[in-house]
């Protein structure tokens, strides 16, 4: 038996050297956490990643939630057989400044809370022994790290996964701004042919080596096209190689209709053996944005109706797991979303993979956030701040370059030109984005006039007509006047929304005070109906993005049904309650047959006659009250069916709405109203 185990071990060792590739080891367990002021020996407590220390205080509405330094420590056993290989630590996200130490030695610092970063630790480790890994994370306010301000919580911590990656001395680079080291540049795509330049970054930490880079594009197990290139790297040298690829009659990534991606396998070979491998999605598509007609994907017009999304939840803050991202995407697709603004920062790699898979067109952006209607400022004109913004833009683009769902890079949100004027810097960022990526346009979200609206390729506005004063009709005035004055601008609406609590119900329609503790659901519903009517009728608006898909944490807000929450979501913070406006959009955007009674959460009616409003995409629907038919109605072009002057009886009234005309599939909804 001992002899057999020894033979198996030797065979395994031989197979490992024959097919030596990188290995990825998740480091989410075994951490001890303490704050910087906790210096006693017994102060650390065990935690697992993802983790934030602000899950409780920030979400309770405590405006001065803990912003400072948190310390994460764990042991890292480094196997003796890894000697001669290269070791890298990859952090998917740490908010917002992270300093990494190994065995007491400072490895490096990363400034920016939303992008991944990588440090090589090959020369810092003790092999065949436990090594002490220590990460100091600081989410304190600093004037040289974006964002400076924001209408959301700045959760501190190691809130995304941490990995140890082990490679051979020569490898596909991990340290090019934490990118995958592979860039699949789509230089020319049509239905007949797609031309792609695969740029592969290489790093050699060992002796001089003759290497081969191979790219294989696959459709499942089928090889579509290949390319190969030889390269020689001197000892300690980094380099890159370019491999042209052509795909004949490609199957295109076509949004939600057909979100197909090829798989690009990039491998590195030495002496006839594969020593490294990276796989990336290759979703081939072509698109354009017209200032008069909007967004076109693969030559066909596509109305982009989307939402914005923040990355937090009750109880856990921003320390999300895979299942949370998947649930968010499921809810978006249920509503019929085909576009998303992932605001106001780089979000988890998992989200971009999911939007690729589901065909959701994405606006990805850096956290260059202005004060909006609040104090402080979003731009400080000092070299360190400008350098940090350039770094975060490069990280956003390089780390996410190959995701077909990303169709525009966002440069800023709600900046102001007073004081330190950001216009020269926005121009610098715009030029940098085009230098990094010649294939995608830039965009921005503005809430005022001025020269900053004429820098990026596209521009969008955050509008709240009918919530922060005014009325929905002023949105139409703004859009028509702006389009008439600047017909060359590609215009979108980057935010529009109104607060609502599912616990606040009324049977009269009255505009609430946004900062008050009364956010009735029916006003949000009315707001979205009226705003969508305006947006749907203007084809020059290239995209619309509801603010927000989900309620989210904002410690400084004291409004709605509780402190610490921005309740403009179409879905509640815990993802359990879909508000009426959710169903309005679902009826308009999702063809799956559905019926929903608006105001069904209303418990007590104050009037004996009511208007019953229903959102439905069925051809005809019939209303029944207490078993009595009130007639059939054909919904209007905005999927609304209404019955006016519906009389209620004293006590409980059972309201039922049912589709008619399709015996195979009858859908219905019901409610109980008391009078």
Strand content: 35-45%
- Gyration radius, to the nearest Å? 27 Å
The overall pLDDT, averaged over residues, is: 95
Q: CA-to-CA gap between the ends?
A: 81 Å
Low-confidence stretches: 1-19
Helix content: 10-25%
Number of helices: 8
From the spread of the alpha carbons, the general shape counts as: globular
Number of strands: 40
Overview features:
single chain, 675 residues, alpha+beta, eight-stranded parallel barrel, six-stranded antiparallel sheet, 8 helices, 17% helix, 38% strand
Descriptive notes:
- The chain has eight helices and 40 strands.
- The chain is α+β, with helices and mostly antiparallel strands.
- Helix 4 packs parallel to helix 5.
- The protein is globular, with a radius of gyration of 27 Å.
How would you summarize the topology of this molecule?
Layout: H1 2-18, E1 23-26, E2 31-35, E3 45-47, E4 69-78, E5 86-91, E6 97-102, E7 105-111, E8 117-120, E9 129-138, E10 162-167, E11 170-172, E12 182-189, E13 193-204, E14 209-219, E15 222-233, E16 238-248, E17 253-254, E18 258-259, E19 262-270, E20 273-282, E21 287-290, E22 294-297, E23 300-301, E24 304-309, H2 322-335, E25 339-342, H3 349-358, E26 361-365, H4 383-400, E27 406-413, H5 423-436, E28 442-446, E29 459-462, H6 473-485, E30 491-496, H7 521-536, E31 541-546, E32 552-559, E33 562-566, H8 580-589, E34 595-597, E35 609-616, E36 620-625, E37 628-633, E38 640-647, E39 652-660, E40 668-674
Question: What's a quick, concise take on this entry?
Answer:
By secondary structure, the protein is an alpha+beta fold.
């Amino acid at each position: 038996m001992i002899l057999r185990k020894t033979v198996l071990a030797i065979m395994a060792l031989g197979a490992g050297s024959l097919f030596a590739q990188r290995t990825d080891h998740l480091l989410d367990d075994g951490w001890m956490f303490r704050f910087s002021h906790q210096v006693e020996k017994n102060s650390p407590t065990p935690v697992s990643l993802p983790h934030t220390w602000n899950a409780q205080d920030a979400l309770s509405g405590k405006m001065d939630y803990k912003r400072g330094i948190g310390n994460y420590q764990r042991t890292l056993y480094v196997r003796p057989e890894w000697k001669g290989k290269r070791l890298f630590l990859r952090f998917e996200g740490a908010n917002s400044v992270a300093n990494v130490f190994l065995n007491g030695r400072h490895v490096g610092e990363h400034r920016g809370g939303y992008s991944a970063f990588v440090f090589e630790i090959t020369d810092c480790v003790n092999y065949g022994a436990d090594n002490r890994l220590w990460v100091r994370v600081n989410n304190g306010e600093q004037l040289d790290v974006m964002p400076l301000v924001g209408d959301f919580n700045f959760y501190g911590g190691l809130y995304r996964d941490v990995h140890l990656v082990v490679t051979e001395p020569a490898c596909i680079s991990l340290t090019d701004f934490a990118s995958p080291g592979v860039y699949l540049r789509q230089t020319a795509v049509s239905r007949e042919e797609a031309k792609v330049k695969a740029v592969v970054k290489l790093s050699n930490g060992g002796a001089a080596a003759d290497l081969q880079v191979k790219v294989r594009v696959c459709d499942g197990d089928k090889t579509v096209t290949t390319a190969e290139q030889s390269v020689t790297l001197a000892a300690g040298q980094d380099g890159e190689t370019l491999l042209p690829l052509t795909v004949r009659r490609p199957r295109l990534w076509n949004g939600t209709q057909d979100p197909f991606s090829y798989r690009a396998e990039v491998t590195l070979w030495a002496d006839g053996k594969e020593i490294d491998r990276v796989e990336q999605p290759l979703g081939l598509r072509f698109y354009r944005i017209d200032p008069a007609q909007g967004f076109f994907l693969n030559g066909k017009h596509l109305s982009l109706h989307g939402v914005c999304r923040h990355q937090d939840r009750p109880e856990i803050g921003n320390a999300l797991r895979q299942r949370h991202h998947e649930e968010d995407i499921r809810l978006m697709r249920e509503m019929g979303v085909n576009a998303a603004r992932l605001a106001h920062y780089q979000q988890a790699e998992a989200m971009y993979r999911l939007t690729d898979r589901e065909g959701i067109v994405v606006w990805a952006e850096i956290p260059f956030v202005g004060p909006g209607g609040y104090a402080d400022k979003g731009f400080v004109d000092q070299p360190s701040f400008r350098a940090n913004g350039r770094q975060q833009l490069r990280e956003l683009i390089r780390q996410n370059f190959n995701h077909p769902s990303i169709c525009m890079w966002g440069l800023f949100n709600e900046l102001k030109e007073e004081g330190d004027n950001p216009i020269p810097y926005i121009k610098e960022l715009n030029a940098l984005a085009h230098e990094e990526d010649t294939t995608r346009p830039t965009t921005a979200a503005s809430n005022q006039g001025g020269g900053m609206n004429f820098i990026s390729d596209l521009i969008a506005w955050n509008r709240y007509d009918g919530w922060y004063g005014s009325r929905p009709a002023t949105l139409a005035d703004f859009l028509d006047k702006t389009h008439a004055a600047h017909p060359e601008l590609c215009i979108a609406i980057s935010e529009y929304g109104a607060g609502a609590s599912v616990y606040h119900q009324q049977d009269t329609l009255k505009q609430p005070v946004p900062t008050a503790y009364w956010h009735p659901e029916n006003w949000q519903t009315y707001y979205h109906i009226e705003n969508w009517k305006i947006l749907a009728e203007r084809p020059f608006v290239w995209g619309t993005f509801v603010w927000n898909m989900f309620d989210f944490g904002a410690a400084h807000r004291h409004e709605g049904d509780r402190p610490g929450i921005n309740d403009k979501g179409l879905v509640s913070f815990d993802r359990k309650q879909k508000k009426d406006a959710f169903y309005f959009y679902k009826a308009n955007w999702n063809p799956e047959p559905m019926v929903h009674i608006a105001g069904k959460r209303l418990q007590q009616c104050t009037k004996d006659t009511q208007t019953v409003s229903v959102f439905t995409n069925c051809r005809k629907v019939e209303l029944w009250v207490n078993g009595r038919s009130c007639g059939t109605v054909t919904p209007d072009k905005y999927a609304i069916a209404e019955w006016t002057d519906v009389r209620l009886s004293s006590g409980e009234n059972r309201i039922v709405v049912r589709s008619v005309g399709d015996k195979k599939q009858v859908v219905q909804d019901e409610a109980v109203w008391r009078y």
